[in-house]
Amino acid sequence: MNEIENTNILCGWGMPKSKIPTGKKSGKAVHDRDFKTLFYRKLTETHLFYEVGRIIASELEPTELIQKIITTIGKTVNFEDASVYIVRKDLTGLEPLYLHNPLLQSRMADAIFFDNGAPGAIAAGGEPIFLDDTALFESFLHHPDERKEQGSYIGIPLKNENRIVGVMGFSHSKTAAFRVEDFDLLRTLSHLISAGLEKAELFKKTLELSRIDELTGLLNYRVLIEKIEEEIRRKLRTGREFSFIMIDIDDFKRVNDRYGHLEGSRLIAQMGPLLKAACRTGSTDTCFRYGGEEFSILLAETDIDEALAVAERVRKSVEDYPFTLKVAHPYEKVTVSLGVATMEESGMKTTPELIHEADVALYRSKAVGKNKVTCFSESFSMPGMKIDGETGTS
């Protein structure tokens, strides 16, 4: 039986080309092979698989997982640059998960589409790319603004049984820098990396679900406490004040009693996207479901005047929103009462104290007629006390 001997790697798509030689030359090549070098390479590859498996077993954050795996691969495969993209959830393109070059960190937010560059082409076709001379490749290798230069490139799809999970690419500034063995090793290793990446993404999704209220899509109470503590630590460093808003649906018990708990749940569910839309965009405001029919908003680097403006916008948005309850029963009104507290630049409060102040202001809003916004004052008291001649109610 004739032996298979790899020829020089050709630039282009797919696996490197090979031919089947005949005769005594093939047998002589086998006998002349350096078995010591072969044994060392196989031992190194086995150790690489062990290390990658160990990383996958111990690392649960996708970015850290890939960073450690690429670093480990670099001990066996000689590359200068690397990139890993993952397929977006809506399957419209790829998002960078890891770029080996520190100068490219600013490109981490740039997504690319399928068929765009080497990563997009690999994701669209599901086949690897092996290039001995990258100057002959018509598009980019790692990112859209990349200059076309001579070099070598290996791009491998990360697949599971059903779909493309992502793409990893490795490049070197020298032509013909990668061996056939490097290509085969990375292609074989890609299945293990795909499984590890899926495991990390699943854990991340599970962790996110544990932090999100299922009914409203807002962050839950546990995350609220974490975020307030973060803002307190930031204030200690920077001195910048921040604000907190407590929100309660007015007469919610009456809705449940009159129309049933299903209608009450619909009302709470619709509050989630409404609050997000009414708040400021970006990372300034964060919305939470505090519990039951109560909600809250944490406003980073926000003074009392700005916080009152946001609270008033939320109050008006709720008052005008076409809730399904109002559509089915036009005579029904849906309103909220809001209380605002601020961690002033000159003072410091604990998390319970800040929440308590917003809560007191909230119940002041309820006591003076509901559907109102109130800023905390030291003169306020909780429900049950006389306020301006009226008895507070909840």
What does this structure look like?
With 394 residues, the chain is α+β, with helices and mostly antiparallel strands. It folds into two domains: 5-209, GAF domain (Beta-Lactamase, 2-Layer Sandwich); 221-391, Reverse transcriptase/Diguanylate cyclase domain (Alpha-Beta Plaits). The protein is 43% helix and 20% strand. It is built from eleven helices and 16 strands. The chain has helices at residues 24-32, 35-58, 62-73, 117-125, 180-210, 221-238, 252-259, 261-278, 304-320, 324-328, 351-367, and strands spanning 5-6, 12-13, 18-19, 81-87, 93-99, 112-113, 129-131, 152-159, 164-172, 242-249, 285-291, 294-299, 336-343, 373-375, 386-387, 390-391. The N and C termini lie far apart (90 Å).
Overall spatial form: elongated
Number of helices: 11
- Biggest sheet strand order reads 2-7-8-9-4-5-6
CATH topology of the largest domain: Beta-Lactamase
Helix/strand order, N-terminal first: EEEHHHEEEHEEEHHEHHEEHHEHEEE
Radius of gyration: 30 Å
Mean pLDDT: 85
Tally of distinct domains = 2
Biggest sheet layout: 7 strands, antiparallel
Low-confidence stretches: 1-21, 384-394
